[in-house]
Structures are given as structure tokens and as C-alpha cells.
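User: Just a sanity check before I run the rest of the batch. Below are the C-alpha cells for the first item. I only need the designed sequence back.
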């Protein structure tokens, strides 16, 4: 019974999806600087953080590891999700940031 009460109390310990998204957006913003489109790749964070995010190729593994940690923490509290992802568009380096470009 005590463990049940502790588990109920810790349900609020889990980050909200909005908090996770905000934390992940900071990670991506720190990881998508570029000088040339060849530096840009897509990282695949996973649900609920998105299918693909444009980042600097040197930061791809870091971004995916951080996303995995956020998602695993979320799942530890019983929050799971899944979705299908479409094929991402081309990448470009615009104003010093990797981003999805316009489709041809």
C-alpha cells in the first residue's frame, strides 16, 4: 500500500510533454549551427519529440541520446506514444542554422 501511495505521489514527478518538448528544443537549438548545407543531417528523436529534426552532423548522436533519455524518463512513468513519420524534405543551412528547406 505504501508503494502505491508513493507511486501516485510521483506521478507528478514525470515531466509534462510540453516540458519535454521545451527541453528538447533547447538541445536542438544548441545543436543545429552550420556554415554549409553539407553539415546538416536529420536526427530522429522519436515520439513525442518529433520524427526528424535538422541538426549539425557532429551533434546528431548527442541529440538522439538526449532525446532517448527524455523519452525513457517519460516512459518510466507509463507514458508511451507512437506515430508514423513521413519522409522529410531537403535540408539547407539558412542564417547559420540547419533547417528543412522547401520541397522542389
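Assistant: Here's the designed sequence for the first item:
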Amino acid at each position: 500500500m505504501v508503494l502505491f501511495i508513493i507511486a501516485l505521489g510521483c506521478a507528478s514527478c514525470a515531466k509534462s510533454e510540453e516540458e519535454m518538448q521545451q527541453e528538447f528544443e533547447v538541445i536542438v537549438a544548441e545543436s543545429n549551427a552550420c556554415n554549409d548545407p553539407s553539415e546538416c543531417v536529420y536526427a530522429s528523436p522519436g515520439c513525442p519529440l518529433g520524427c526528424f529534426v535538422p541538426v549539425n552532423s557532429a551533434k546528431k548522436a548527442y541529440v538522439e541520446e538526449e532525446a532517448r533519455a527524455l523519452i525513457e524518463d517519460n516512459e518510466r512513468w507509463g507514458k508511451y506514444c507512437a506515430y508514423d513519420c513521413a519522409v522529410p524534405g531537403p535540408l539547407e543551412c539558412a542564417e547559420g542554422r540547419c533547417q528543412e528547406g522547401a520541397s522542389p
